[in-house]
């Protein structure tokens, strides 16, 4: 088990990585799935043998409220159908924490429940917010779960200039589910999970 990293240094490195992803040219992405709520693209990840996914859609609300529903906190478990538990293990200054959470089985349980331990950081970005995270090798893996690993991930939430009560939400996700899984099942699950994330989030914000 690794010791906890320096939170300020890890937060800075994580933010820089996500800003770099946010600058990747449109031509490098390939559309993976499109719904009325969001479009999902993907490209080979630089971090592992799977894909870096980009998801984007307009959400009707202000950036602060949207990010409050996404980052670790009381809202996330209420609406995110994939997340089954969440505990904050450590809290640092500067909107940093370490959280442990579990996810439900997917694709008729071809993908069994997973556990993740992530460092999470939320900061301002342009006129909006960036909430980002990365998995840590920290704590004992609980029985009945496979420990997954999130390579640098994050959500940019920027108010639309001509309509400030709507925000453009752009996510970058690269999750290594680990365990014995066919890659095609993982890819199918990721695209559907990301479009469902937008539709579930929109419903939650309207309640």
Q: How would you characterize the overall build of this protein?
A:
The relative contact order is 0.23. The protein has 4 helices and 12 strands, in the order αβββααβββββββββα. The protein has one domain (7-205): Alpha-D-Glucose-1,6-Bisphosphate, Chain A, domain 4 (2-Layer Sandwich). With 207 residues, it is of the alpha+beta class. It has helices at residues 7-22, 63-70, 76-79, 183-206, and strands at 30-34, 39-44, 51-59, 83-92, 96-103, 114-125, 128-135, 146-147, 149-150, 153-160, 163-173, 175-176. The protein starts with 6 loop residues before the first helix and ends with a helix. It comes from Sakesphorus luctuosus. Pfam families: START. One of its GO terms (biological process) is cholesterol import.
Characteristics:
Alpha-D-Glucose-1,6-Bisphosphate, Chain A, domain 4; 4 helices; cholesterol binding; StarD4; cholesterol transfer activity; alpha+beta; single chain; START-like_dom_sf; STAR4 protein; two-stranded antiparallel ribbon; 207 residues; 12 strands
């Amino acid at each position: 088990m690794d010791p906890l990293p320096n939170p300020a240094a890890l937060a800075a490195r994580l933010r820089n990585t996500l800003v770099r992803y946010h600058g990747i040219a449109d031509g490098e992405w390939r559309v993976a799935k499109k719904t009325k709520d969001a479009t999902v693209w993907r490209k080979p990840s630089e971090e592992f043998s799977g894909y870096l996914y980009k998801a984007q859609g307009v959400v009707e609300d202000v950036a602060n409220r949207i990010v409050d529903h996404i980052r670790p906190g009381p809202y996330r478990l209420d609406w995110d159908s994939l997340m089954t538990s969440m505990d904050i293990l450590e809290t640092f200054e500067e909107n940093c924490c370490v959280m442990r959470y579990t996810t439900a089985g997917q694709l008729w349980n071809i993908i069994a429940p997973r556990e993740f331990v992530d460092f999470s950081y939320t900061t301002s970005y342009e006129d909006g917010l960036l909430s980002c995270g990365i998995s840590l090798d920290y704590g004992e893996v609980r029985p009945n779960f496979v420990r997954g690993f999130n390579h640098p991930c994050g959500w940019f939430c920027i108010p639309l200039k001509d309509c400030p009560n709507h925000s453009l939400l752009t996510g970058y996700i690269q999750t290594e589910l680990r365990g014995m899984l066919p890659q095609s099942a993982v890819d199918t699950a990721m695209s559907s999970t990301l479009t469902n994330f937008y539709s579930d989030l929109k419903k939650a914000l309207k309640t």
